[in-house]
## 1
Amino acid sequence: MGRTRGSVVASCLRILLVAICVVALASGGDSVAGAPYPTLHSHERVSSHPGTVALPQPLSDALDGPVGVPGGYGMSLAAHVGEHHVRASWTYVDGVPALNAHVDSWLLGLLDAAAPAGSRYRPAMALNPPQSAGQEMTASAAPVLAAGTIIVVREKVKGSGTDGTGSERSETVYVDAVSGAVRGGAELLRPEAIPGIQSRMLGIPAQIAAPVRQDIPVRDLVLKPSGELAVSAEVPGNPGGNVTLTMNAGDAGAVLSDYGRQVLGQLNAAAVPRPATAPAARHVNCDIVPCAALTYDDGPDARTTPQLLAILAERKAQATFFMTGSNTAANPAIAKQVADAGFAIGNHTFSHPYLTKLPVPAVKKEMQRTDAAILAATGAAPIMMRPPYGAADAAVQGAVGKPLIIWAVDSLDWQSKNPAVFVPKVLKEITPGAVVLMHDVQPTTIAGQQELMSTLQAQGYQLVSVPQLFEGTPLVPGHVYRSRPVRP
C-alpha cells in the first residue's frame, strides 16, 4: 500500500514537472532558439508583440474597396493585346491633371509591355476584342482614400497564364490635388524602418535578427486617418497572392517619415474643393481607349437639335456642334441649351459661303459675326472653326484665326437622307481617332443617331468631343486637323 502511494506521488511530480516545462516553453515562445517563425497570412495584423490578430474589416475595405472622390469618374477597357486578354478599370479626377497623367502613364506602360515585341499598344486592339486570348491580365487603379489635399490611389495588376500560374502586384501613390505632387507609398516610411517591416512580412518576430529578402517590394502602403498602416506585397512562398501586414497607430507612428506625418495630417482634414470640369473637356486619353468625335454642322435648329441632345444624353456621349452665325442668331435659346449641356461648340461661319471665294476681309467678317452671335447666345466665343465644304487654302487658313477642324469620315448624310445608307458608311470608314462629319439640321440624320452611337459604343468606341479627342495635341490657329495623330 505504501509502495503504491509512493509510486502515485512520484508519477504526479513527473507530470507536474512536464507541465511546468511546457508552460515555460510556451511563454518563451518565439525567443526559443530553433523555434519555428509564425506564418503571417493574408489580412492579419501584427504589432511589436509576438502573435497575430485578425485584421478588422474597415481596413480591409480600404485596401480593396474604391471610394468616391468629388469629380471622379470611372473608365474601363477590354482589349486583345499580343497574347493577352486585358481588362482594365481606372478612375480619373476632374481638376487633378497630375493624377490623371500618372494613371495614363502607368496603364500605357502595362499595355505596351503586353504588346508583341517591337510594337506598341494601339487603341484599335480594344475594338471587338475576343473574350479569351490566352493569358489574362486584369489591371485597376482607383482611389481608396481621399481627404484634405490627398488622394490615395491603389494600383493592382493580376496575371494568369494558360498553365494556371498567376501573379499579383500592387502599389499605392499619394497625390496632392493642389500641388500636383505624385509620390510613392514607400515615401511614407523612414528608410531605416523598411528592413524591419520586410522581416515582419516574412513572419519573423521583431526581436529576432534575421537576414531579410530584399526583393520584397514595399510599395503598397495605405495609411488610415486613424494612424493605422497596412503594407501589402507578394512575398516569397506566396505566389499569386499578397500578404498584408497591419500596424497599429502607435507602431506606425514610429516608422513614418516627415512626409508620412504630413499625409496623416491631411487625411484628417476637410477635403479641398476643386473646380468642376465641363463634360466636353473632361480628360479622356484617346491613346488608351478607341475614340471617335461625332460632329454636327449647320445648326442650331429648333426642331432637330433638341432631339439630338436627348439622344446624346441617353447614350452618355459627347459631341461637337459647328454652328452658323445666322442660325445661332435665329435660335439663341437652342445654342444656349447645347452649351449648358456641356457640349463643345465651333464656328462654322455666318452665312456658310465658300471661304476660298472670298477676299480675306470678308473671311474675317464671317468669323467675327459668328463669334459674336455664339458669344451672345452662350456666354463664350468658340476656339475652333470648320470651313463650309472643307474649303480652305493658305489665305483662309491665315485669316480665320482658329484651328480648322475638318473630318476623316464624311457621312454624306445630307446627300442620302437615309440612315440605312449613311450609318453603314460611317461604320465602314471609321477608325480610332477619327472626326466624323454630320449635320444636325437634317431630320433623317437624327433618325440614324441612336443606331450609329449604340453600334459604335458596342464596338468599344468612346464618343468624345473634339477637344477631348485632341487633348495633348496643341491645336494651332491656321492648322488643319482631321483625326488624332497616332502615338509615336
Note: The first helix runs from residue 2 to 28.
## 2
Amino acid sequence: MSRPAGREPRRLTRWWRQRSLRSRLTVIAATAIALSVFVAFQVASELLGWELRDAAENQLRADSRVLATNAERAGLAQVQLPPYPGSGRLVRVILPDGSTRTPAGQPALPPVSEHAGRVAQGASADLMESNDSEEGYLVYTLRAGDGAVQVAQLADDSPINQFGFGMLLIGLLCVVGGALVGRAVARTGLAPIDRLTAAAVRVAQTRDLDADIPDEGGGEIRRLIQSINDMLAALRDSRRAQRLLAEDAAHELKTPLTSLRLNAELLIRLDRRGTLDSALPAESRTRLLNDLGAQVAELGTLVAELTDLARGDVSDENTEVLDLADVVAAAATRARSRAPDIEVALDVTSAWVSGRPAALERAVLNLIDNAGKWSPADQPVQVRLCAEDASVVLEVDDAGPGIDAADVPRVFDRFYRADSARALPGSGLGLSIVQRVVDAHGGRATVARSARGGALLRVDLPAAAPPAPTSQPTAGEDTAAS
C-alpha cells in the first residue's frame, strides 16, 4: 500500500518541532552556510568559465592573425606549417577548393563546418565556434587570401574542476565550522533562557514567589525576565490578598459562629434536661430564636459577600450598553423590599453607561443599604443620578451622623467598620464590593459629607453613547408590504 502524500511532510514537521531550540539553531546555521557556499560556488564557477573562455578566444584570435598574415604572404598552398609539437594549439588551412592542409603529426580536427566554409568563401570575415564532439574543440576561423585559416584549442575543464573540488572542501569545512559556531552561539545566546528556566523550575518546586529572577541580558531576554518577575509579583499580591481574605473572613465569622454555638448549646442542654419550657419563658425563647435567625441571616449575608469578593472578577455576564437609571430603580425596589422601613427618594435622569447590569445593581444596592443603616427613620435616603460631561454621576446620601475624618481613607477597605458601626448589622464588605465594581467599570468612588450632615457616597462612571433607536414600520408600510 502506498503512503499518503502528506504523511511524510507532516512527519518531518513533527520531527522538527520535537528538536530542541539549540539543535534547530545549529541546523539552521549549517544549512545557511551550505546554501551560501553553494551559491558562491555556482557564481564563481560561471565567472571563472567566462574568464577562461574569453582568454582562450583572445589567444586564438591572436594566433589566427599571425597565421593569416603568413598565408597571405606565402600563399595558402605554400605557407609553411611547422610539425605539431605534441601539445598546444591546432591549426588548419582551408584552400579555395575546400581542401585543407594541416601540420604533420597533428591530430585530426573535426570536419570544416558549413559556417566555417562560408568564411573561406568570403561570406564573412571570421567565426568563433565551439565543437560539440567528445573532444570539445574551440575553433576560430579567419578569412585569409582566397580561403581561410583555422586555429583550434581543446576545451580544458580541469581548472574549473580543480576549482570546484577546492570549493567543495572549503564548503564542507565551512558547514562543519558553521555548525560548531551555531552550536556555540546557540549555547551562549540561550544561556539566559536556561538560567531563567532553572529559576522558574525552582519557583515551581519550592512555591517561593519571593525569589525574583535576576535581571540579565538585554532586549528580548530582559523583557522576558521582567515579564516573569511582574507575573511573580502579581502572584505574590494574589497570594497575599487570599491570605488576608482568609484571615479577615475567619475573624469576621468567629463572632457570629460563637454566638450561634453558645445559643445552640444552651437550647440543646435545656432540652436534654427537659427544662426548656420552665427555664426559658416564652418571651425569652422567642427572643433567643429571633437572635438565632438574625445570626443565621448575618452569616448568610457574610458568606454571600465573601463569595462574591473572593471570585476576583465582577461577574461572568457580558458587558452591554444600558441605562443606569433602570439599574438604580431596580436596586431601590430591592432595598425597599429588604427593609420596608427605609424610605428611598429617587431623583434620576436617563444616563447611559457600558457595564454589567447585575454587578452595577449590586453596587447600587450596597450603597443604599449602607445609607439606610445611618439614615433616621423620618429622613429618606436620597439617590441622585445625572450625566455630567463625559461621566455619569451617582450620589447616595443620608441624614445620619456622617463619617469621621479618620475613617474616610478606610471606608472602602474590606471588613473595615468604624467604631460607631460595630453595633450595627453588616460585614464591612458592602462598600468594598462597591469599590471593586466601580474600578472594574473604569470609574471612581469617593466619600464626602452631605448637605444634610450625613455621608455622601459618589460614583463616577464613564458615559456611553445611547444605542440607536430601532425604527418601527408604520401601519401604512405594513399594509404596503403585505
Note: The longest helix spans residues 21-74.
